[in-house]
Automatic annotation (TrEMBL):
It holds the Pfam family Ala_racemase_N. Pyridoxal 5'-phosphate (PLP)-binding protein, which is involved in PLP homeostasis. Residues 15-238 form the Alanine racemase N-terminal domain. The modification N6-(pyridoxal phosphate)lysine is found at residue 41. InterPro entries: Ala_racemase_N, PLP-binding_barrel, PyrdxlP_homeostasis. The keyword Transcription does not apply. This is Pyridoxal phosphate homeostasis protein. Keywords: Pyridoxal phosphate. It comes from the Bacteria. PANTHER family: PROLINE SYNTHETASE CO-TRANSCRIBED BACTERIAL HOMOLOG PROTEIN (PTHR10146), PYRIDOXAL PHOSPHATE HOMEOSTASIS PROTEIN (PTHR10146:SF14). Belongs to the pyridoxal phosphate-binding protein YggS/PROSC family. It comes from Amycolatopsis halotolerans.
């Protein structure tokens, strides 16, 4: 069964890589400008481990409750491999201490209060010897103004970026967004691109634009995405989370 699943994942990964390469070529961009995150939410740690076998070391999760145990299990399954885990889902402030134990990057920072909670958690984790170095973070942007779905308003992105950039425990890496429901993704990603340009003009090291998932990664790459978050196209339909 493991070999069968490995073959399935290898075929899916090859197909996704081809899509990314084609989208980059169509946009006149180099393939190495776009990072692929494998979103393993609801899928078992064994799948995440198989993806690392196939060379995909950037993995992402949406829920801290699932991610922490899964990251630990993958570490046991593949002790010689060090995948880089990303938090891409909405995050409550009371989960900050837990998240900084396993995440190298949090892409869903959408408020000053969350940024401050993460900064405090990083400082505490350093004192406890649980991590070294700052936490990479992205500002999550609401492209339709519906903050209930996560993200800060477009008008507030610059202020939040400024706050993060002056927080010593966090390292501002760029912006992230999810295309709104019922809108052409390309139009939405164009708005994100303009916001990203403003952030990058102030903080040149914050050049990441995380946009695009299984259904709209092509449009995202056309509008400057440097990171696509792919789950279904890699792993298939909803899976069974590891215990």
């Amino acid at each position: 069964m493991t070999e069968e699943r490995r073959a399935e994942l290898a075929a899916s990964l090859a197909a996704v890589e081809e899509r990314i390469a084609n989208a980059c070529a169509a946009a006149g961009r180099s393939r190495d400008e776009v990072r692929l995150l494998g979103v393993t939410k609801t899928f078992p740690a064994t799948d995440a481990a198989l993806l690392t076998d196939l060379g995909l070391l950037n993995l992402a999760e949406n829920r801290d409750q699932e991610a922490g145990p899964k990251a630990a299990e993958v570490a046991e399954l593949r002790p010689d491999v060090a995948p880089r885990w990303h938090m891409v889902g909405r995050l409550q402030r009371n989960k900050a201490r837990s998240v900084v134990r396993w995440a190298a990057e949090v892409q869903s920072v959408d408020s000053v209060r969350l940024a401050d909670a993460l900064a405090r958690a990083v400082a505490a984790a350093r004192e406890a010897g649980e991590r070294t170095g700052p936490l990479d973070v992205l500002v999550q942007v609401s492209l339709d103004g519906d903050v209930a779905r996560g993200g800060t308003l477009l008008d507030d992105v610059d202020a939040l970026a400024d706050h993060i950039a002056h927080t010593g425990e966090l390292r501002l890496r760029g912006v992230m967004a999810v295309a709104p429901l019922g809108e052409d993704p390309g139009t939405a990603f164009a708005r994100l691109s303009r916001s990203a340009e403003r952030v990058r003009a102030r903080y040149p090291e914050a050049a990441d634009v995380s946009a695009g998932m299984s259904h709209d990664l092509d449009q995202a790459i056309r509008h400057g995405s440097t990171c696509v978050r792919v789950g279904t196209a890699l792993l298939g339909g909803r899976g069974l989370a590891s215990p």
